[in-house]
Amino acid sequence: MTLSCFKPYDVRGKVPDHLNPDIAYRIGRAFAEELGAREVAVGRDVRPTSPALRDGVVAGLNAGGAAAYDIGLCGTEMVYFATFARGLDGGIMVTASHNPRDYNGLKLVGEDARPLSADTGLTAIRERAEALEAPAAPEPWPHPLNITPEYLAHVLGYVERDVLAPLRIVADSGNGGAGPVIDGLEPHLPFEFVKVRHQPDGNFPQGIPNPLLPENRAVTAEAVTDYGADLGIAWDGDFDRCFLFDGEGHFVEGYYLIGLLARTFLAKRPGAPIVHDPRLTWNTIETVRAGGGEPVQSKTGHAFMKEAMRRVDAVYGGEMSGHHFFRDFAYCDSGIIPWLVVTELMSRTGKSLGELVAEQQAAYPCSGEINFEVADPHGVMEAVVTEFATDEAIIDRTDGVSVELAEWRFNLRPSNTEPLLRLNVETRGDSRLLADRVAALKKAIEANG
């Protein structure tokens, strides 16, 4: 049996064609056998297909000799937390995050919530799962585990609650899994939450929650202005990514949040390494160096970022796509910790989020991520590099290709999860040059696509 649902650092596919309870059973059993795991955390997102896939995973884990500790409906980071906080042998989250409704997937981690990628165990699990004979669909035996109180206490530990101001915050869960966590945090915080698309509903009646796409931001932005909120937060389905809006309803690119959070953590841990992805870099590098830290570039993707963070013992790492990673969270990503840290910063300084990032935005204006559907992403990428890379350009191939010139730079990379070519552009304080270069790159990509 060939399993096409295995990707570079997780499992994703259409249900039931590429992923179903039978395949989930195979993967769960292969996971337990390959890792020698005996205790594994299991969680699921809000999608209607997730409970059956969770049952398949649990049955497979049991057949492979592992006890499955079921934490129920949750976010991916809660599986990470259960794994490292309880000293378990691994964790499996049933989720397709922001993929279309008919998709689902699995995110797998080993001991101490270490990610499994194609290079660190995922390939071996796939090969073992493919070699298994057809399962007899045994009854799953999960052990319920309520990790929520411990998890809430942990994330609240990132802020000093006695300094928090009574902010009004729009919390847009996108009908994903973040709503129950906001309800759990609310009694411990002085904030007034305006709850939007709050109830978990895996049918996603108002669209798949993916605030990285500009067309998906209007509901959050309008709620911020309608309710006169100080801050807006939106999450994807499994809330391992968060996206922020300032008090005027303006979306704040994740790029600038990396600089803001890096500066905050360096104030507490001077000289620490900070890991960043290659798509947009100038502001992060300058901010980290100014704060006495060490900027470290990593390939995009949670498995690669976590590997880099562990290698250099980074205190914090960030991807412009909304993933933020923390040393004290076992180097894992959280969609809850970042906005909590921002609220403390707003409270301490008396500044709005817009004021906190204004200088960074002016110094390094950026395009945000622009996606293109092209037949040959790698071929188009190379054609564009040939056209724009002058003799003076610095070319970096950490992830896709980055081309850096004196006053502007861009990164082009094929998506690891979707058939897309992704473009990011930034300049040194020149918005006109940014618009010009974005237009020229779009023209070149479309001409070669």
Low-confidence stretches: none
| Gyration radius over CA | 22 Å
Query: Would you report the number of β strands?
Result: 21
Please state the average pLDDT score. 96
List the total number of helices.
14
Strand order of the largest sheet: 1-5-4-2-3-6
Strand count, sense and barrel status of the largest sheet are: 6 strands, mixed
Task: Give a verbal description of the structure.
There is one protein chain. The chain is of the alpha/beta class and 449 residues long. The chain contains 14 helices and 21 strands. Strand 19 and strand 20 form a beta hairpin. The radius of gyration is 22 Å and the shape is globular. The protein starts with 10 loop residues before the first strand and ends with a helix.
Kindly summarize this structure in a few lines:
With 449 residues, the protein is α/β, with parallel strands linked by helices.
Would you spell out the secondary-structure blueprint of this structure?
Elements: E1 11-14, H1 21-35, E2 39-44, H2 50-63, E3 67-73, H3 76-85, E4 90-94, E5 103-109, H4 118-131, E6 142-144, H5 148-156, E7 168-172, H6 178-185, E8 192-196, H7 218-226, E9 231-235, E10 242-245, E11 251-252, H8 254-268, E12 273-276, H9 282-290, E13 294-297, H10 302-312, E14 316-318, E15 324-326, E16 332-333, H11 337-349, H12 353-363, E17 370-372, H13 377-388, E18 394-396, E19 401-404, E20 408-414, E21 421-427, H14 431-448
Parallel strand pairs: 2-3, 2-4, 3-6, 7-8, 7-9, 12-13, 12-14
Antiparallel strand pairs: 1-5, 4-5, 9-10, 10-11, 14-15, 15-16, 17-21, 18-19, 19-20, 20-21
